[in-house]
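User: Structure please.
Assistant: Input sequence and predicted structure:
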Amino acid sequence: MAIYTEQEARKIMEKALSFSKADACEINLSGSESGNIRYARNSVSTSGHRSNQTLVVQSNYGKQSGTATIDEFDEESLKRVVARSEELAKLSPENPEFMDPLGPQAYDKAINFVEATANITPEFRAEVANSSIEPAVAKGVTAAGFLDDSAGFAAMMNSKGLFAYNKSTNVEFTVTMRTNDGTGSGWVTRDYNDVTKFNAAKASKTAIDKAVLSQEAKAIEPGKYTVILEPSAGLGLLNGLGRSISARSADEGRSFMSKEGGNKIGEKIVDERVKLWSDPLNSEVPSATWNGAGQPLKKTVWLEDGVVKNLAYGRFWAAEKGVDPVPFPSNFIMAGGDASLEDLIKSTKKGILVTRLWYIRSVDPQTLLYTGLTRDGTFYIENGAIKYPVKNFRFNESPIIMLNNLETLGKQVRVEGNLIPYMKIRDFTFTSLSDAV
């Protein structure tokens, strides 16, 4: 097994650290056990299991540092990997932004490990595939899906007295359903730390229903429309906003958060209903409570009442600016409302329901303008009901404009380790049609 207990990990790392002769030494030890199953054309194509373990040693002499990696942990191997990292450090140029390792830290106890997920079996994976394939065949639909589950640990120790340990589990599922005539497509994704929250049959039905409903889509004119963005679609654009929270890129004039003489902390940039934060102890999207630099991760508010409250400061940039470091987040949580998808559709006189955005590319980082395409289920809404499927669009839109054109926030849904609400947005810009299904 590649997953070590805290005591087992500590013993290996202490042994490795005992061989260090450098000014400072940092050791990271990690391991995982994971399994997967893939299916396409309504039959399983591959399934497998992976077991990995890695130890990484970083040694430094002043601002010179070197790194070496190994996956064998007997005494002689540990001696060699430490010696190799020291040899490389002595050959390396100085890094002017090198930061000394942190001393001991206090971490909250993480809640991102669930035993049931760690105990997933090949039989369970096969049943997940079956619960997609059988109903797809019954509906004249072709399924292509992937399930990946993992359990793992990460540990960190350095010569300054820091020690950190975390165990985690995760299960990820995605499936695309295509009608056999090739004119309809539906898609869904699900991810959890706790596999008992996952219902593969229900998720697959959502994708099947969208595939059947999206057959023989009609072309309508591009332009500005009221849209309902499902959480996966909303995240596609919000990711761009998340990438802009670096204080350094803002201070150096390289991002949307830049302004003359500094950054936009304290400025209102979006609708006052928008609140965006991160929290490693959120029960729906828990994560590790420390990052790769050994910094504790705490609940941090990034946007509140539409105002920028914090930007992320790495240790070097924080020291340059004379402020406390603010670690980058391990998840994003956006405040939502009580409205269901059905409620949002019923409240829409004319609009478009978007399942997914993909092939998203940056157009202008200073305004966070992005372009991309809709995919896997795009529908025209009229008088509170879905009237018919429409051909996919290319869009040009910014998450900042999007969040200033906010009409309604719906319920939150977990997507890719984040909590994102359904969003109803006015004047969303579609620029052209796409023939893709």
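The two ends are 44 Å apart (CA to CA).
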